[in-house]
Amino acid sequence: MNIDSTTSQLVLAIDTSTDMLACAVAELVPGQAGADVRVLATGDHLCRRQANVELVSTCQDTLARAGRSMDDVDAVLVGRGPGSFTGVRIGIATAKGLACGLERPLFGTSTLDAVAWGVWRSGVRGLVGVVGDAMRREVYPALYQVGEAGPERLFDVESVSKVPAAVSAWAGRADHDQIMLAGDGLKKYRVQFEAAGFSRFADEDAWNPTGEGLLRALAAERVAAHVGSGDATAPAQSGDPALVLPVYTRLSDAEENEAKRLGLKEPATVATTGCDDALADRHLQLRPMNVNDVAAVAALEGEVFAPSNHTPWSARLFSDDLAEPGHIWWVAHDEGQIVGYAGAVMAGGDAQVSNVAVAEGHRREGIAGRLLARVTYDAQMLGAATSSLEVDAENAAAQRLYAQLGYREVGRRPNYYGKGHDALIMEAQLPLVTPSRHDTPDPHASVRPWPIVAAPRSDEEAAAIAGAGPLILAIESSCDETAMAIIDGAGQIVANVVATQIDFHARFGGVVPEIASRKHTEAVVGVYEETMAQAGAHFGVDTLVPADLAAVGVTQGPGLVGALVVGIAFAKGLAAGSDLPLIGVDHLEGHLFANLFETPDLRPPFVASLVSGGHTMLVHVRDWGDYEVLGQTIDDAVGEAFDKVAKALGLGYPGGPVISRLAAKGNKKAIHFPRAMMHSGDYSFSLSGLKTSVITYINNENKAGRPINLPDLAASFEAAVIDVQVAKAVDAVRQTGAKDFCVGGGVAANPQLREAYKRRFGHMGVRVTVPPLSACTDNAAMIALVAKRRFDRGELSDLHMDADPNMSL
Ligand code: KG4
Ligand code: ZN
Fold this sequence. Notes:
Layout: E1 9-15, E2 20-31, E3 34-42, E4 45-46, H1 51-65, E5 75-79, H2 85-102, E6 106-109, H3 111-121, E7 126-133, E8 138-147, E9 150-153, E10 161-162, H4 163-171, E11 180-182, H5 186-195, E12 200-201, H6 211-229, H7 253-263, H8 277-280, E13 285-288, H9 294-305, H10 315-322, E14 327-334, E15 337-347, E16 350-358, H11 367-381, E17 386-392, H12 396-404, E18 408-413, E19 423-429, H13 459-468, E20 471-476, E21 481-487, E22 493-500, H14 502-506, H15 513-538, E23 549-557, H16 561-578, E24 582-586, H17 587-593, E25 606-611, E26 616-623, E27 626-632, H18 638-648, H19 655-663, H20 688-704, H21 710-736, E28 740-744, H22 751-764, E29 767-769, H23 773-776, H24 781-792
Parallel strand pairs: 1-5, 5-6, 7-11, 11-12, 16-17, 20-23, 23-24, 25-28, 28-29
Antiparallel strand pairs: 1-2, 2-3, 2-4, 7-8, 8-9, 8-10, 13-14, 14-15, 15-16, 17-19, 18-19, 20-21, 21-22, 25-26, 26-27
Helix pairs in contact: 1-2, 2-15, 2-16, 3-6, 9-10, 15-16, 17-24, 18-19, 18-20, 19-21, 21-22
The chain binds 5'-O-[(R)-(carboxyoxy)(hydroxy)phosphoryl]adenosine (KG4) and zinc ion.
5'-O-[(R)-(carboxyoxy)(hydroxy)phosphoryl]adenosine binds near residues 613 and 746.
């Protein structure tokens, strides 16, 4: 479906980037100069920090006031910010869910543009400065020339700056008193602008984005695109909800600080980030380039470009470039060797790829594509909308690779590589096409058709799907995996997809909440589609469609709030768009239920230990849904202790798998570590003392110049953890008289812990269940089990549900 076809289209527009929940339902009517906006109803209202609660019902109410229903919606439009990070993501994730549920296109537009259109609507003409609130004494400054036909941008990409910098950037354009200011940043910073000589402020009603402003911005953008391309039917945006992403103006704090660190001129001691390849057992990793890599990168550059006329960059050139703002470099390393690198430089809204190379023995492994994806991702976070590069006109293989990533030829530089040897200029829209999303990449199309139309089904296929129901889709996004699964009426998992972000967090030694939240927003549509396709394959069709589902389950908590809201907002949009009931699930209950994959006849009462990166507790499961928490940790969680010890040893994140692999080869009696609260007589745990004594041990050995025996250290640390865990579990089983014991959470994947429980309880005649390894760490199959039970009992949630980061059993 194309929004600018000849008939009018009903568009639902939303934006939660600011304290204003903007919502409007309008018809876009093809007009003379493009589309006219005919607003049918608006639901704009101030709603501080309640967007996730109110957004979906506001959409429904606004549609009702327009005399329409969800089914009538032809397209969804969302404000992409910039604005409050969480706010932007709630709007975008909800909009993605709506588009998937409705099977309709999703478009995005700049929230600042929407504000400018609101100012235009209020009758203001001339120069208008929109000042969005970026928190931390910063603003998103955007200058427009507003004429009768609407506002025109006088800037390339949305950016962020301190108030004084914004003021001085506009000083060259006009006198301060010629610029009319608007934007929610004025609520806090108006005085500063006044002090700098600004005296004209738009009516406060025009400071926030409105649904109508979004719609006008979209209509204008599409008209502009048509005029520019000379093709009246070329859509400016494809409508693919996977491609609509927030406008970010900076990387996460963790990444920004890292970039600063890496760019330092003389940091001979920059720690090589990321896991040690061999220990982590994860080969080929990508990370930002640092000064320590420069020599190896220059050597590789020399090798790769020796046969061509291209002059290789020297180490000096690389290290100078690394320190430049707006220059982005990534390397791929394997077993400690640099095997590839790529770099780009920001030029306005374009990320110009300056170098990309992969070592001889590592070609055709997709490394160049992955490197370019990382480099252009960072560039996008800095405001790039496109990426361009030059490629040898005679290098067909390279051109094919770039075409697969979405680059298309836009020009030619004659004689660039010497006489008669041209370069092609290729350009791609960001984000690049991820190869895995296309089975057979079409080099001529950088966008795929959306909505995806499911192939027709035979009567038997349709009957098989209907007969397997009720089918429930479950969504998990509480930490660093974006996961979805589908469970059928018989309790079988018919699809199970986990997209892990570990790569993005490993080099920081732990999960960075801001990165987790961004990655969920980016991955959610792809994971949804893959899950629906996997379930489709189970039934012999290409994909399931929302109408095949009976309900949507989603993790409500506990977890990282910024991560939870993405899954929840998507789930709510999906449920509202396809008229399905919503079911909120407790993540910890999911970890408990994961034991049913191993022991389907497991029945309460029993005792369970939940051990993950965030939790350490003993639970008496009196009945499903009736949980008595016998005790929990008073400080760190077990998984957290593993992660912190690994970080102290420079082993990267997550720590559990590396430590347990090392421990398997070590002597657990080599070092004595304290068993805190072993005999406290209750079910409380404490792990921070153990963590501290391990770190103290490491420091002391380092100081004394003694090499640390990693396997012995890991085994001794693990033994201290396991002794306490087992002792308290035994007490709990004795006290409750339980005949079953089970374990849940990421740490349940630890082989030594699993073994210790089996050995100890084996002697007592207590049956021990541990989930299959894949069901220990976070996944949505376990969430689906809980959702199904809720669904069967009619325990549904409503669409006002919000994330509950501290939810307890
Ligand atoms: O359940 P999970 O995936 O996420 C949370 O809800 O926290 O658990 C992740 C945690 C991490 O701390 C990780 O280090 C730990 O589980 N973990 C392990 C092992 N595998 C994962 N801890 C010990 N031994 C393991 N083999
Ligand atoms: Zn978990």
